Amino acid sequence: MFFTLLKKELFVEFRSREVTLSMLVFGLSIILTFALSSNVSPTIIANYAPGMFWIMVLFVAVIGVHRTFSYEKEFDAFSMLISAPIDRGFIFLTKWMSGFIFLTIMEALILIPFFKFLMIDFPLQPWIAIGTTLLINCAIMAIASLVSGIAMRARLSEVLLPILLFPLVSPVIIAATKISGSIMVGDPYSFWKIWLLIILTVIVIFGLVGYTLFDFITEE
Amino acid sequence: MLSVSNISKSFDHRTVLNNITFHVEVGETVIIMGKNGAGKSTLLRIIARIMACDKGEILFQNNDLLNGSPLVRQKLLYVGHASAMYTILSAIENLQLALTLRGTPVEISRIQDQLNYYGLTNQSNDPISIYSQGMLQRLKLAYASLASWNLLLIDEPFSGLDTEGIALVNKSLHRWKKLGKSMMIVLHNQSRAEELGDRILRIKKGLIA
Known about the structure:
heterodimer; A: 8 helices; B: Rossmann fold; six-stranded mixed sheet; four-stranded antiparallel sheet
């Protein structure tokens, strides 16, 4: 059932391209704004780059996750999922997984413009940077999928989503910034291990909470 | 078949359903009637577990519907006001998805046969976002025809249909009734309710009158 639901998520997005396109356009706009508005030395830019990158990813993730849940409201399509005789935890897992895939695709597309426009060097350990980025994406989307599931039934869901999400996701963004900053300058693993553990803890906790609670939070 | 006990539901401190209790027997067709806002659709959505109730208990085929396994809902089909399908997908894709989620996938040829029966052959590959209200109603009936169920919860099946569509709904409901299937139908038309129903439940001020 998990793969049927995941296939549906990916197929709907493949057909409409609404989520990835809106995420991409928004991400590129933020990069251009950062690049054109900052008039400081490359060293200062390099210091702030990880924070700028993860803030941009957060904004883009909000747009993506809001869209993946809002098309469920059109023609009450979500009723098809929740009235079906399936474990509703799978709905959360597939929303999480598809959100992770869309966010990763978007990052892959905007990473080169980000480094080029801001004129910063690529990380010294690219594979470690990619691995940690995937884990951070996983943590962001675990929280975002759960919060979006809670907010989708609310009248002002588009306002409620960032209000609930930003405080919850801020430890992940801080940890992500610390990890990326350390990797950019080639710090050893022991320097950023604690931040990685925070990310892993968030993945486990929000993954389990989302899977368990989705049965209740999806009902009107 | 279905046993609903003391179901209550309030919205913003306004009680819509107040200790509703009733039973539906095997093969019985129960019509739910009441004014707009009486709580008819709310009751069906609670039974389908789309909406949570404040209190009460529902047994379906002797299994706890509210707290039991999701598989308890396998033979329960809800067909609501809205199509409950994805606007970007075609009728065939939506039906394939809905039936697979119910654990009873069906071959495309059977889906096409049903769409043909309900007059949707020419639009079967179009996204349903371009469908009219009547076409969506026909699509829902095609879904109910293809799905495997023992109790159908159907909300205003005649709304938005032309004369031909009304005849199709009537025919389908009578066919299911003949097959000994149980149904709960929300209706507004008294003569149609008397014709189709074995029993009429009227909801008034949150109670069954």
